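TICKET: design request
STATUS: open
ATTACHED STRUCTURE:
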């Protein structure tokens, strides 16, 4: 029989309440009662001794095999080409990092890199604000909201080569509606096949037309996730439309805009099909981006060594810049 302390609480009661009694000897019955009153701790200790079933890893085995054949093995093949000078399937010489040095020092590659970087910067400066403005202007509810989503998403459904063909005809001054309108209404001599500035503007407008809807859809999804009480409170306080956008909508769009910026940078930095169909990299080298120059070296000249080193450097640049973008954007949001 256990006695009671000065405060009238027995050790058993104290053990059941939380085990905070110190300096007393607890009996077996007390410990058993405490264990019965704390089943969570008992179950946790029992769960730690269970054997883990690792058979679930076999479910991801098809994905691992697929990635190995579609990504890892081709990447290793490119690495193999980038360190060798290949004369024939059986005649090759190991050159180490020579191709990487040659590609990094090539003035044509540097010029193409600057053109691609400038194009990506212009794409982000145009498409992100336009996409957000389009998302804000779209209706939030009702049948018009569904109709607006379908209309906005139409350019995204068109394949890249078809987009290039459409703009190749549309921007022609003799047979294209867009080229004819520019030459007739403002009276400008627009010809993207001969003028490098016209070719650059054509490719830039084509990309803005094709991919701004992606930014708009992402921003629209972010706007739809904002609860209505936020807007009701802003309306009660008499906030203007700009104040509502700045203090309610824009902060809530930070996450989706980070995704939009990363996606649009990576895609615009690796753009190939559309400018190749419209201008072929010309006139001259005005629209010869890194992807078009890489295709010229790999397919046109069939220099597998420089092309392999070029592609690896290209891949590394995209990864580094994307990481910098992601780090800056996420730290700014904290």
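STATUS: resolved
RESOLUTION: sequence designed for all positions
ATTACHED SEQUENCE:
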């Amino acid at each position: 029989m256990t006695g009671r302390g000065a405060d009238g609480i027995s050790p058993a009661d104290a053990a059941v309440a939380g085990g905070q009694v110190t300096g007393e000897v607890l009996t077996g019955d007390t410990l058993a009662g405490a264990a019965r009153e704390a089943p969570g701790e008992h179950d946790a200790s029992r769960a730690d001794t269970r054997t883990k079933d690792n058979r679930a890893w076999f479910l991801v085995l098809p994905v691992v095999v697929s990635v190995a054949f579609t990504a890892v093995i081709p990447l290793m093949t490119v690495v193999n080409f980038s360190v060798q000078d290949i004369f024939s399937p059986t005649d090759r010489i190991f050159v180490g990092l020579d191709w990487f040095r040659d590609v990094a020092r090539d003035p044509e590659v540097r010029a193409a890199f600057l053109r691609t970087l400038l194009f990506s910067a212009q794409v982000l400066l145009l498409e992100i604000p336009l996409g957000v403005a389009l998302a804000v202007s779209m209706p939030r509810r009702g049948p018009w909201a569904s109709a607006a989503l379908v209309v906005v998403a139409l350019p995204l459904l068109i394949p890249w080569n078809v987009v290039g063909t459409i703009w190749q005809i549309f921007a022609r001054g003799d047979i294209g509606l867009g080229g004819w309108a520019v030459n007739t209404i403002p009276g400008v001599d627009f010809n993207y096949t001969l003028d490098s500035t016209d070719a650059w503007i054509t490719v830039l407008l084509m990309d803005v037309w094709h991919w701004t809807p992606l930014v708009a859809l992402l921003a629209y999804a972010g706007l739809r996730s904002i609860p209505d009480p936020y807007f009701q409170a802003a309306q009660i306080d008499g906030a203007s439309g700009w104040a509502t956008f700045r203090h309610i909508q824009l902060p809530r769009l930070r996450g989706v805009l980070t995704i939009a910026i990363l996606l649009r940078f990576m895609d615009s930095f690796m753009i190939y099909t559309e400018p190749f169909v419209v201008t072929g990299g010309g006139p001259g080298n005005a629209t010869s981006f890194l992807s078009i120059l890489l295709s010229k070296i790999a397919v046109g000249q069939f220099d597998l060594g420089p092309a392999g080193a070029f592609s690896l450097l290209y891949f590394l640049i995209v990864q580094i810049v994307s990481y910098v973008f992601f780090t800056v954007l996420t730290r700014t949001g904290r």
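CLOSING REMARK: Confidence is low (pLDDT under 50) at residues 14-28, 30-38. The first strand starts at residue 84 and ends at 88.
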